[in-house]
Amino acid sequence: MLELNKKVSYLRGLAEGMEINEDTKEGKIFINIIDLLEEMVLAISELETAQAEMEEYIDNLDEDLADIEHVVFENEKDEWDNEDTQYIEVECPKCKETVYFDEEIFEDDEEDLVCPNCNEVIYSEESYEISEDID
Ligand SMILES: [Zn+2]
Question: What is the pTM of this model?
Fold first, then answer.
């Protein structure tokens, strides 16, 4: 960009040195072209700055996203890779969504099973039968 700037400045200096001015028809055209070139160089320079900022912003977003992906997928992997824990697939009688429960939760009589999707109690602590009145 500095190069383009120099070239336009050189042209302007050349025109002044040759005493080209707007007094003649040809001079008027030359001076106007040089003015236009200056404006274009400025416009391109602004675009370059804006694009550089955009690229930096996208790079930062990309890095942040990679961090989030790492955290999310690692957590998911840890959960499902844990061989000590078995997951039991249950279709919620209320919302019909297939949900998963840690099997340990079935061993604990004190705890109600609550659907993580609709928050309805699937199994109550009194009975591990599906309550008929839920559906
Ligand atoms: Zn549900």
Answer: 0.46
**Ligand 1 center from residue 94 Cα (angstroms):** 5
Domain ranges in the chain? 2-81, 83-135
Please provide the DSSP assignment of 26-83 as one string.
HHHHHHHHHHHHHHHHHHHHHHHHHHHHHHHHHHHHHHHHHHHHHHHHHHHHHHHH-T
pLDDT for 41-96, tens place per residue?
999 999 999 999 999 999 999 999 999 988 888 877 776 666 667 778 888 888 99
Q: How far is the CA of 83 from the centre of ligand 1 (A)?
A: 26
Looking at the chain, the whole-number percentage of residues with pLDDT higher than 90 is 47
Residue 113 CA, ligand 1 centroid: distance in Å: 10
How far, in Å, from the CA of 120 to the mean position of ligand 1?
6
